Model the fold of this input.
Amino acid sequence: MLGRASRGRTGRGRSTLAETGAIGAGANPGETAAYAVELKGITKRFPGVVANRDIELRVRRGEVHAIVGENGAGKSTLMKTLYGMHRPDEGTISLDGREVHFRSPADAIAAGIGMVHQHFMLADNFTVLENIVLGSEPTRGGRLDRSEGRRRILEISDRYALGLEPDVLVEDLGVGDRQRVEIAKVLYRGATTLILDEPTAVLVPQEVDELFGNLAELKREGLTVIFISHKLDEVRKVADAITVIRRGTTVGEADPKTTTVRELAEMMVGSELPSPETRTSTVRDTVVLEVRDLTVTALGGRAAVDDVSLVVREGEVVGIAGVEGNGQAELVDAIMGLRPLTSGSIRLGDEDITSWNTRTRREAGLGFIPEDRHRQGMLLDATLWENRILGHQTRPPAAKGWFIDRKAARADTERVMKEYDVRAPGPDTLAVALSGGNQQKLIVGREMSSSPRLLIAAHPTRGVDVGAQAAIWGLLKDARAEGMGILLISADLDELIGLSDTLQVMLRGRLVATLDPTNLTPEELGGHMTGARTSAGAA
Amino acid sequence: MNALRRLGPALFAPVLAVVVAVVISSVVMAALHVNPLRVFEVMFDFGDTPSQQVTALVVIVNRAIPLFLAGLAVAVAFRMGLFNIGVEGQYRLATIMAAAAGAAVSLPAPLHVVLIVVVAMLVGALWAGIVAVLKVTRGVSEVISSIMLNFVALGLASYFLTGPFRGTAAGTQIVSTKEVPESGWVPSLNGILGALGLANPPRQLYGFLVIALVAGVGVAILLNRTRFGFDLRASGLSASAAVASGVDARGMVVKTMLLSGGIAGLIGLPDLLGSTHAYTTNFTAGLGFLGIAVSLLGRNRPGGIALAALLFAFLDRSLVPLQIADFPASVVTIFQGTIVLAVVIANEVARRVTRRAAERGTAEATEAGPTPGPGLTPPPGGSTDARQEVQA
Amino acid sequence: MMKAAALLLAGSMALAACASDEKSGGTASESSASGGGKDLKIGLAYDTGGRGDRSFNDSAYAGVEAAIKEHGGKLSELSPNADASNRADLLTQLADQGYNPIIAVGFAYGQDVVTVAKQYPDVDFAIVDSSAEGQGADNLTGLLFAENEGSFLAGVAAALKTETNHIGFVGGVDTELIHKFEAGYVAGATAVKPDITVDRQYISPEGDFSGFNDPAKGKIVAQGMFDAGADIVYHAAGGSGLGVFQAAAAAGKRAIGVDSDQYQTVDDPALQAVIMTSMLKRVDNAVQAYIDSFVDGSVKGGSDVINDLSTDGVGLATSGGFIDDIKSDIDEYKQKIVDGEITVPTEPTK
Done:
């Protein structure tokens, strides 16, 4: 079915190409048969490695076209090619049937291509208006013409229903608003084709919906959107066409209406997929973590964590669900000893660890997969073996007395890399060189290697590809079966429901519901997370 | 090969910096109608007689010792992301205290030297400790507080020198502390030069070289081989990740600053114990600031700092022959300045190159790893195998 | 971001540290004038600042130039490095290269020159502004100046010219040497007008030499004196003196320069206009006289040559003609000092 769909489209694409080839840059831009963006046989080599190989991509005007693939499959390289950040070694790029050669992003922008990066490039202490006009400021007599800028921004905002307020400082905006500013920035520069790189990675479900609403507006106004993602259900929801990339090359197109997530994922990975489901309970009686009446006060005096009590037993996965920013991060920090408690106590096994510092807690058997691996989990400019011992530098195999045992640490890093499938040349590689999935596997591997009694896993599969996600789920399941207690914080509702033995819902710093994941649907869980449902109604 | 790979990036930046500096300086010299080739020739001319040549080497090494220590002090703090600009004040204050302490007591030779060294390190550490305490308790930027404390330290040093520690009679123009008795001097290494079959120069090779080398090796081991060093470097690479790994951030700031200040305390001792034997109004100043440049050039690694210190010392020595050869002394100043500037650029370039190289290396490995052979690669543009898989 | 800023800051500070204030290096002057001493090789080691300081170092250079003009020969001049840690090296290298005599400019060489002189007993050394007596080096001559006597005349001129009966003195660094300037100046002023007010202030304390090279502070200090009512300020503050002149120009008052004829060395006509006179320290005369005595073999090592009013080693500059009207008064006082009628103190009264 899928095959037919893609073959049909490919065939048509080729034939139209032949026809329009003659017209080429001809005087008939209205020719509908020409693709808005067409890549043919794009190959990009870096010394010793082919990042893209014979890429074929055809995007029609006015469609949302998704490019899916695992991390490291070559999506970013492809987009950089299209955005003029480097030149392909082979192949051609055509816009509206006209072949183009970009020497820099400036060329791409001039040709109507805009890029919304995954990591926002906004100046926090500038207003929305200033951020949008930055670099292409309207001027009058050499001075910034704010009113002209404001007029144009409001026009864009109205036209695409972006809801922008030009005079608000960017630092006061939420993530979703910032993304809209990024989109407006691109539109302001006259883009007709927008590339969105993993736009939903940073958004909560509600914001994702809003974004999709915006994309629909863009589409309606005739703009073309290229949407890069590896979140397949989202892709199916929003895209008109999907191109799948695997190992540097396009493996086919799929019709989102007729292809299931599973089929798409298998195209991406090239094999059968696991699921997060774990149904046999391995919960034992021994309590490994007991948090009692925990309150953490945030900067403004507000209680970020408000009187939270919870218990994690051996072999149990306790999931914390909640819209981000409802105190999960503070709770994790408090348990790890990274943030002072206002009141309450924390026990690890038989010991009261409330007054212990982070190092002692770790040594006593707390493992930690942090939410933001670049901020808390890794030393990007250090080698893999140094990252292997980070957080474990006081214990074997890393330490020998007061010294670091480099040999043993390297050897153990090789073991972790092998056992946890971390793909890198060797233990002396810099961590920054690894893809997100491989970095995360290294973190998971190192935390597992010290056999913690309790593992705090904050968004353990965030930003990693499907393959790595499956591997991490497998590892968590194995650890649980061996009796490890796991506190799982995640924004991925399937992950939470699939992995947890018990689910706690966190809202405004409080645990507002305890749910049994067995028969829970993501929709129900989502309702609890936003406070629409009450614990009485569900538990 | 592996060693070369690891050393490559480390050498790349400084070599690039020196090359860039040579080129820029040559252009500037040419613009000033000075023949750069002739300048470099004079710079490398160490004299005709063996005695002169060894003297030149001794002058360079003697100058390099305090520069090395200064670079080391700055680098220790730099490696954990702290910018200790206060090295200047730390060593000036430490040196006068050590001079006073050394002059006040009389001990058997080795003990006397040990006492002076310990006093100097303690004073330096203490002065740097103030910066650390201000930072961890009040959040004062170490850059600001250490600059301010430099002024305080210089003022205090002047006060002590002209007040309680004054060793010279009123009316003399150069005020100095009382002379440290001979038991507190560090003997010269000229004997070793003789043993090596080199001519015995009129200048004394500072015995403090040994202590500086010990300090350098010690710091290298501490940073690279110990748990403390790991914590320190981790804090420098990412403070938040270090804290999450269990490093006590505040404790680390204090310990690092104490260490940095302790080393800073040694900077004035080669001169003090090797030649002047007293702290004087014209005791060498500015070494703390030069240390920043030396540390940068050496990329904060003890080995690199040693080379950087030697380079700076070499440039410094060449001032005299250049002037005798009727070249403007500013040539060397331009050269030194250009090097510092080039280092800042080269370090950044090197960092990017290293990163890119690492990324390529990984891509290569990933590609070469579990990827199926070329025969199994799906045909370009075709969706056949995907279709087969899905349909299967 | 933070790191980049730190690096830049470090770079600029290091650059600042590197950048010594030497304005120009040594360009050798080989004048083969008449004279017989063709093989005369004179070594000149400058104080920090090097040649081009338009003061001390330049004055020493002028003396050597004059001597070379007379006797022929060759000069090599060296400036110390940025932190002046290589003073001994400069002297050693000059001696090694066969320069003789070697003249060290500035008391900072005081210790090094003694050490090196002992190492090279066959070379004659001279040191400006530092005593050679009792140092145990009989090939070393100290070239000293009676700054107090010259400053006395400056005090006389200031007292005669003041309209507010209120004058000032700015010292660079609070040292014995600068005290001599202050003592003479105050003594001269009170000799003319016993009830005169003399403000006295030093820029930096003993041990901190920044006061000789900090025009900004010099300006502030002088400004304070002008604001307080002084109308003539005399400075003995080296490079900081520029600030004193600027303050005088801004306040519409006058200043007295030091060491060299600063009327001639200040380029800005606005500043020239305020320099009433300068207390000259004739380093050139002293150096030239020393070389003369070297050439005719009459150098007496291990002792000092004191240049005072009687030998015209110190005096007042008359450029600009601001003090021409009081010339006779000044000459009168000068004569009294030369005759020993007035003994000028070297330590100021408190």
